[in-house]
C-alpha cells in the first residue's frame, strides 16, 4: 500500500491535458489531470470513464447536444461508447479520472498532440 498526496501530485506537473497515473486498482487507473479549454470529441468504445472535479469547473459535452456541468466535489461517469468532449471554460480544472488501464485519453479520435499513449506514473 502506498499513500498518495493529491496536492503533491498536482504540484509535480503543470502540463494540461496530459494525465498522470496516481494508482491502480482492479486494472483501473486513477489519474490526475489539469484541464483548461476544450478537448477533442472522442469515445471509449469498451470503457466507462469517471471524471471527479477536485478544483474548478468542468463541462462534459455530449454529441447529442446535452452536457453535464461539474463543480468541485462532483463527478460523472461517461458510459462506454458515448461520444463526449471535456471542456474547462472558466480556467483550469483539477480532475481525477478513473478508467481501465491502457485507455487512451483521446479514445477513438485520430492521434494528435494531445494523445498520451503512455501516461507518466507519479
Automatic annotation (TrEMBL):
It comes from the Archaea. Residues 111-122 have a biased composition (Basic and acidic residues). Residues 38-97 form the Cupin type-2 domain. SUPFAM superfamilies: RmlC-like cupins. InterPro entries: Cupin_2 (IPR013096), PKS_Associated_Protein (IPR052044), RmlC-like_jellyroll (IPR014710), RmlC_Cupin_sf (IPR011051). Residues 103-122 are annotated as: Disordered. PANTHER family: 16.7 KDA PROTEIN IN WHIE LOCUS. This is Cupin domain-containing protein. It comes from Salarchaeum japonicum.
Amino acid at each position: 500500500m502506498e499513500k498518495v498526496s493529491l496536492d503533491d501530485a498536482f504540484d509535480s506537473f503543470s502540463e494540461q491535458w496530459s494525465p498522470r497515473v496516481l494508482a491502480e486498482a482492479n486494472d483501473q487507473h486513477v489519474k490526475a489531470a489539469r484541464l483548461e479549454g476544450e478537448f477533442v470529441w472522442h469515445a471509449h468504445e469498451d470503457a466507462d470513464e469517471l471524471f471527479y472535479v477536485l478544483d474548478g469547473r468542468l463541462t462534459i459535452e455530449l454529441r447529442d447536444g446535452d452536457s453535464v456541468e461539474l463543480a468541485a466535489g462532483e463527478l460523472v461517469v461517461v458510459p462506454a461508447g458515448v461520444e463526449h468532449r471535456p471542456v474547462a471554460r472558466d480556467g483550469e480544472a483539477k480532475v481525477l479520472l478513473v478508467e481501465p488501464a491502457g485507455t487512451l485519453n483521446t479514445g477513438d479520435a485520430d492521434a494528435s498532440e494531445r494523445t498520451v499513449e503512455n501516461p507518466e506514473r507519479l
